[in-house]
Design a protein that fits this description.
The chain has four domains: 190 residues, 3-Layer(aba) Sandwich (Rossmann fold); 137 residues, Beta Complex (Methionyl-trna Synthetase, domain 2); 253 residues, Isoleucyl-tRNA Synthetase, Domain 1 (Orthogonal Bundle); 90 residues, OB fold (Dihydrolipoamide Acetyltransferase, E2P) (Beta Barrel), CATH 2.40.50. The protein is 41% helix and 16% strand. The chain has 20 helices and 24 strands. The strands form eight sheets. Strands 18-17-16-19-22 form a five-stranded antiparallel sheet, covered by helices on one side. A four-stranded parallel sheet has the order 3-2-1-13, with helices on both faces. The longest helix is centred in the middle third of the chain and has 30 residues.
Length: 709
């Protein structure tokens, strides 16, 4: 029996609205994963909430002349609305300004302090003589000592991701007044990470199948040696250090990275109370009396790796040691941190107006279209790039032309030629059985990708089932057999409808609205909810079976996915350009200081007759792996519609094997076969090289096999 599973997503900071980069980092990936787990019948709870403390919120409140509470109230509502609009189905969405969170955080602090788990230190700290305040991390800005970024904060450089302290900054300045700070003494409570390093290293050594980017960052911290980290700050806004704790606590609050991850725990407690059992949180957070340990999975962005893989586990370890006779907190089982999402070839920057706000995107497009385009390009192993042209190509070429087209063909044939019912399957052919076998195998294959956090692959495999369905219809040609062999036509429609029904479940984690509409067209009921609202009904494994009985009446066919028009994406490009142009010139200067690399010179001129022999076709990468004998080559299986070919490409430096699975590409289809290190390559995939030497696939619009002119 599987263990209870608690999934968390990084608490979004209640200091601004949500953008697509946020969604692609910690929220949509978790939503895909959790919706799959629910459909698979897993005992899972998914918690999140607004992170409402910290210096940045106090700074914003001071600048706007309002209270910090009014700031977080505003953005908590905006964040929750955006999540709801995108179909992000948390079991609970809390906030760190709640009474439950305050109590939970202070109780944990007390227990660690009572067991001497903290080290108290008096140190010098930067102080703003004009504002009359100690300057916590975010109140200090200066030049990053690692990358030279001039506006790094005192806790982290948002340009290179380095974790810093205010003393590390070059030419520090107060974020409140701009004054040069002076140093004064102050006392704080520190978590002794240096003493805990051997324990943390031993624990990290037991973690299985963690992403290389996560382990690499953690190990680099170990190599540098962990330093004690302050768990309190001199601030007005935050959770106060419990006043009964021995020492000077007035004007001191809990550090946001002590307080924020405890938000996962307090949110689970609030969920348990809402479920009618205040102690139910323990099932997902503590080792059970029989030794069963729940699984804890943190979905985050790469900038939060250190806090979720070192700081928070150290807090939990220290809390466990403080109360050895009580049930012990579980430690993270997985931290599938994502890289960053770029926008139209540039790094996202809200201050420079280079971002797509979630609310604006939802005003323009259906949430499922945005979910799909983000899901197929998640930054799982390296930074990814979102472009509006790719969004349009993905929606039109895959969701509409593959999924929507297949479903429409199956439903329309049933409505027109089978009396609107599921026809009987009689004496199935080899093609019929092969298609049903592909359907039967799909839930396990797609589910394995989900459980291994290969979410892009899971999405690609799902759409590939619809692609196989289209190929099956092309092969069996029911539009012809209805005139020559009516039972063959009925068999084709039966099989296609069963695949469509299976897809209505398999698509649910990615595009739940489209999946629901598909079930409505099929008149398919009794499917388990992927939002957590009940566990009864047809589930994930059932998607591979015959869900529709012979004679089952189907609903009215309709357009499942409306295509995205050129005007719609052009409006988004213009909106982005206008917002970026309106940003402060000083903000934009940092992005344009460096001259762009020169464009590659044009090749020698050729004649039209030299060009026309090239046969360029749309292909889709359906599988990829490393060339066993060549360090620079990847081996691809490319679907060209009429056949699947093996093609080798020297792009291993830029892409991991699974990164391009599901991507449409342009293929030189009439290139003579060539054997490279023992493997035959039958064609060439075209890539675009930018001025920095980075490669990106040329993504066409059209079905595999379509001619590129």
């Amino acid at each position: 029996m599987s263990r209870p599973l608690l999934v968390t997503s990084a608490l979004p900071y209640a200091n601004g609205p949500l953008h697509l980069g946020h969604l692609a980092g910690a929220y949509l990936p978790a939503d895909l994963f959790v919706r799959y787990q629910r459909l698979a019948g897993r005992d899972v709870v998914w918690v999140c909430g607004s992170d409402e403390h910290g210096a940045a919120i106090e700074i914003r409140a001071r600048r706007e002349g309002v209270t910090p509470q009014s700031i977080v109230d505003r953005y908590h509502a905006e964040l929750k609305s955006a999540f709801d609009g995108f179909g992000i189905a948390f079991d609970t969405y809390g906030r760190t300004s709640s009474a439950m969170h305050r109590t939970t955080s202070q109780d944990l602090f007390r227990s660690i302090e009572a067991a001497d788990g903290f080290v108290r230190k008096t140190t010098t700290q930067l102080y703003d003589p004009e504002a009359g305040l100690f300057l916590a991390d975010r109140f200090v800005q200066g030049t990053c000592p690692v990358c030279g970024y001039p506006d790094a904060y005192g806790d982290q450089c948002e340009n290179c991701g380095s974790t810093l302290s205010p003393d590390d900054l070059i030419e520090p300045r107060s974020a409140l007044s701009g004054a040069t700070p002076e140093t004064r003494e102050t006392t704080h409570w520190y978590l002794p990470l240096g003493d805990l390093q051997p324990q943390l290293e031993a624990w990290i050594g037991t973690r299985e199948n963690w992403k290389p980017n996560v382990l690499g960052q953690v190990k680099s911290w170990f190599q540098a040696g962990l330093a004690d980290r302050s768990m309190t700050r001199d601030l007005d806004w935050g959770i106060p250090v419990p006043p009964e704790v021995d020492g000077e606590t007035e004007g001191k609050v809990l550090y946001v990275w002590f307080d924020a991850p405890i938000g996962y725990l307090s949110a689970t407690k609030e969920w348990a109370e809402a479920e009618g059992d205040a102690e139910l949180w323990r099932r997902y957070w503590q080792v059970h009396p029989d030794g069963t340990e729940p699984e804890l999975v943190h979905f985050i962005g790469k900038d939060n790796i250190v806090f979720h893989c070192l700081t928070f586990p150290a807090i939990l370890m220290t809390a466990n040691a403080a109360q050895p006779t009580l049930p012990q907190f579980t430690l993270p089982t997985q931290v599938p941190a994502n890289e960053f999402l770029n926008l139209e070839g540039r790094k996202l920057s809200t201050s420079r107006g280079w971002a797509v706000w979630a609310a604006e995107a939802l005003d323009a497009f259906d949430a499922d279209l945005l979910r799909y385009a983000l899901a197929v390009g998640l930054p799982e192993t390296k930074d990814a790039d979102f472009t509006w042209s790719d969004f349009q190509n993905r929606v039109n070429g895959e969701l509409a032309d593959v999924v929507g087209n297949f479903a429409n063909r199956a439903l329309t044939f049933a409505a027109r030629f089978c009396d609107g019912q599921v026809p009987a399957l009689v004496d199935p052919t080899e093609a019929d059985r092969a298609m049903l076998d592909a359907l039967a195998a799909a839930p396990a294959a797609i589910g394995e990708a989900y459980t291994a956090y290969r979410l892009r692959e899971a999405v690609a495999l799902t759409v590939d089932l619809a692609r196989k369905g289209n190929q099956y219809l092309q092969e069996t040609e029911p539009w012809k057999t209805r005139k020559t062999d009516e039972q063959a036509m009925r068999n084709s429609v039966h099989v296609a409808l069963q695949v469509t029904a299976g897809l209505s479940i398999l698509l649910d984690p990615v595009v739940p609205g489209i999946a629901a509409r598909l079930r409505e067209m099929l008149a398919l009921t009794g499917v388990r909810s992927s939002t957590g609202a009940g566990t009864d009904g047809l589930g994930w494994a059932d998607a591979g079976t015959a869900l529709l009985d012979t004679g089952h009446p189907i609903g009215e066919p309709g357009i499942l996915v409306a295509k995205v028009e050129d005007e719609a994406v052009e409006a988004q490009r213009q909106l982005l350009a206008d917002r970026s142009a309106a940003a402060e010139p000083s903000d934009l200067a940092t992005e344009t200081d460096e001259p762009a690399a020169p464009y590659t010179a044009l090749s020698d001129e050729i004649t039209f007759d030299q060009f026309t022999p090239l046969d360029l076709r749309v292909g889709r990468i359906v599988a990829a792996d490393l060339h066993p004998k060549a360090d620079k080559l990847l081996r691809f299986d490319v679907d060209l519609g009429f056949e699947t070919r093996q093609i080798l490409s020297g792009v291993r430096e830029w892409f991991s094997p699974d990164e391009l699975v599901g991507t449409q590409v342009v293929v030189v289809a009439n290139l003579a076969p060539r054997t490279i290190r023992g493997l035959e390559s039958n064609g060439m995939i075209l890539f675009a090289e930018d001025r920095d030497g980075a490669l990106k696939p040329v993504v066409p619009h059209g079905e595999p096999g379509a001619v590129v002119r």
